[in-house]
Amino acid sequence: MDFLVKLAENFIGIFNAGGENLVGLITGILPTLIVLLTFVNALIALIGEDRVTRFAQFCTKNIILRYSLFPFLAVFFLTNPMCYSFGRFLNEKQKPAFYDASVSLVHPITGLFPHANAGELFVWTGISSGLTTLGLSVMPLAVRYFIVGLIVILIRGICTETLTKMMWKDPANG
Question: Is the pLDDT of residue 88 over 70?
Fold first, then answer.
């Protein structure tokens, strides 16, 4: 009998935990994302969608800017996870590489710009804790971490775009 009681308690416990998680999202990140999305759309409307689109197209025409400056601007201004919405300015075959570059930048940017990925700040504090313990400045590490992050996202973006092009080729046409 105890087994059935424990089974029932654990079964409903899964749903209680899911409900608590949902309430946490509703009172935590979802309002922030909704307000941020509203702000960004309002800002684009004020600047003019044509101007924003032209700037985005300028950034995305060049492969170097597409996988360095463009993901940086997305992560810096929109933060994680809203930054991925910048992919709307890219053609379909470039979106996987943009996502790969952007998702790879959300940790390296945190040392210099904690707002960009505040939910994962523990990664940066874990990395920098040794310097902090020694009483040393973390800024040289933050700058190096950021620069290496930019190099890595550029490499990842180019590699992912190349792989995406290969996978999207029509096998019937060689």
Answer: yes
